[in-house]
Amino acid sequence: MTTTQQDCRTLDAQDPLRELRQQFSLPDGVIYLDGNSLGVLPASAADRVAKAVTQEWGQGLIRSWNSAGWFDMPQRLGNKIAQLIGAAPGEVVATDSTSVNLFKVLSTALSIAAIDTPERQVLLSERSNFPTDLYIAEALCKERGLTLLLVDTPYIQAALTTDVAVLMLTHVNYRTGAMHDMQAVTASAHTKGILCVWDLAHSAGAVPVDLTAAQADFAVGCGYKYLNGGPGAPAFVWVNPRHTARDVWQPLAGWWGHAAPFAFTPDYQAAPGISRYLCGSQPVLSMSALDCGLDSVLAAQPLGGMQALRRKSLALTDLFIELVETRCAGHGLRLVTPREHAQRGSQLAFTREQSPHAPPPRGGDSGAYAIVQALVARGVIGDFRAGDGGAIADVLRFGFTPLYVGFEDVWNAVEHLRRVLESGEWQRPEFHHKSTVT
Amino acid sequence: MTTTQQDCRTLDAQDPLRELRQQFSLPDGVIYLDGNSLGVLPASAADRVAKAVTQEWGQGLIRSWNSAGWFDMPQRLGNKIAQLIGAAPGEVVATDSTSVNLFKVLSTALSIAAIDTPERQVLLSERSNFPTDLYIAEALCKERGLTLLLVDTPYIQAALTTDVAVLMLTHVNYRTGAMHDMQAVTASAHTKGILCVWDLAHSAGAVPVDLTAAQADFAVGCGYKYLNGGPGAPAFVWVNPRHTARDVWQPLAGWWGHAAPFAFTPDYQAAPGISRYLCGSQPVLSMSALDCGLDSVLAAQPLGGMQALRRKSLALTDLFIELVETRCAGHGLRLVTPREHAQRGSQLAFTREQSPHAPPPRGGDSGAYAIVQALVARGVIGDFRAGDGGAIADVLRFGFTPLYVGFEDVWNAVEHLRRVLESGEWQRPEFHHKSTVT
Fold this sequence. Notes:
homodimer; alpha/beta; Aspartate Aminotransferase, domain 1; Aspartate Aminotransferase, domain 2; 2 domains; seven-stranded mixed beta sheet; 13 strands; 13% strand; globular
């Protein structure tokens, strides 16, 4: 029997995480299914950032590097992130962007491999990885004369040969929401002597991650998605302590990664541990907002933490799939995210295939973009990711952040989707105009 | 005849830039001579950042990438910075940290040199350059098997040989305030076929800079000093258009530097022009504050712009030197900044040498640190930079930002300094305790 709206209300009433939603400032009339792209504002961030601006900067001025604790924010916030990804205190710093951090760890991983396994010339990744990961890898391989080998996901296992120096993967795919088994993949790679670099952009705060148990080598991740750190919030970086102990520099060897930054010595001496992965000064105002975002996720710790968030996330996504497949049947939407719980993160992607009920939209595309725009106009915010014109199709993408998304939200979102499809409302010309960013 | 306090009041009353101070929120009772380290809060930033948090992020959410103009902030802010450094619109982006940007341009400069002058194996800089510049250079030279040659400032000219691929200098020295003649040095280097990378951290917004007239090759600079962008504000990068046209990647080739970032293609294609020097997402909240900081400097444009700011800066620093040398005579303070206008920026440094009037302080150091602390306790905020224990001595450092520092401020600051020295107040134990950051 299909779940009803009343059932959803009951699920919300019984939800042990329900109170966590009170932490957030959600606009009226919005159902937000895009926390995988930009998390919602934690209400505390408004005061926290205002304090950073008017008191810490305005009144404290330069003294606030000490008195307001600006100096150790990368480590202090890093310790909060560590609790969400199975890392120990002192193993994570919040800093720079995901792309910049990826450059640091991928460089280091390749440098270590060049010492330990100098005959290996291949950096392996998957073709569907997030583009910036592939670009950073491409640039590094070009620089070092290595080969970047991109394979389709099913062939990763077979590609783990003794030619490969480093395997770089994103844990949860940005487009499809498919999730790798981090522990199994890392173990397979290690048996072949391959180092593993994981991008947790769509995992941190979304699914349980245990870098220590997986014995991963390097990881980076994003502050502004499920960690609710605000637009362009600083990212993070983790390195297994067995590698920070190595005598290898990360190449962005700026003064913040120096053992004694304020000694102002002319020669570089790397700080012990993860601090050597810092480079320059961090944007304190944006870091302050990230601090609130991290607290909003850590607020779930007394209620079961990431395991409890994961249970709710799976219940929400299972419900969304069920309702789309029953209430929106016949409109050509097809789930591309794996159904298996262990194989997906906290987001879902659907393609739209030829519909028996409606003519093809203007321009002959799949209609996925216009459907997303029509939903946004109704206050249901998901997003669109373009296909590559070939094997990878355009998708409608919906993220479910269990901190602030409820079961009735899911019901209402699907009801809007049903109306958009049944009325043909999405075929209006205004929904087909593509803006710069989607 | 020595300038009197009344003379200073008259100078303030006649100052054509006096009104610009109204833009800033300065704490009561503070004379701020540290704008070379962290600029003062522009009053507009409180509302601007609050709007970015509550409206753009809170209400607009992901839609604000388009509707609030987040997407083109690096270019829009870059165009404002361009007006202050003699660059054309479209030639500058605000992004990342100075250290990260230096890595991008230094890598590119070395890559271009490797094509054009492959026999050259030396990266030249000066020993007294800001440490992070030297660390980034050291890491890159290590990576590429090049030699980092550090010389003392008087020997730079002689070191410009045909062995040198790239010359990297900071325009205004962070410690001494000494300024290079950018145009002359660049011209000398170019006659030897050497590319020039300039760090404008202590120049942008402080002294007139004309990168185009100097025909410089690459430049980076800081957003949080004289540009008043807030703690850890994003930095900027400029590349001469003759180099952005070259088929050379900067190695931090992230998606924001891609020609079509939202096409999500697996292979990297560099954006045209300076946009290829972007890497990942930028911290929007901190960028919003930087936007206000840039406006606070551009507010001087109708009043004569950087030339007018420079005139006032030189008048302020001349006055400070005169008053210290007359009113604080006999206490061992010695100016290390060049007196010649053309050879200094907008900051002054003094060492303290053995005083005939006072015993050496506890610990046997120069006392510079304790004097700075005693001044801070009186609300006169300058800072201290440690020497290297050898040729480079400890200094008291004072920055003069003519947007908000007045002539009577200078008089009062020196009066506090006189009292600190004459009373021996700086020898109190509490002023000798060194905190992590100074």
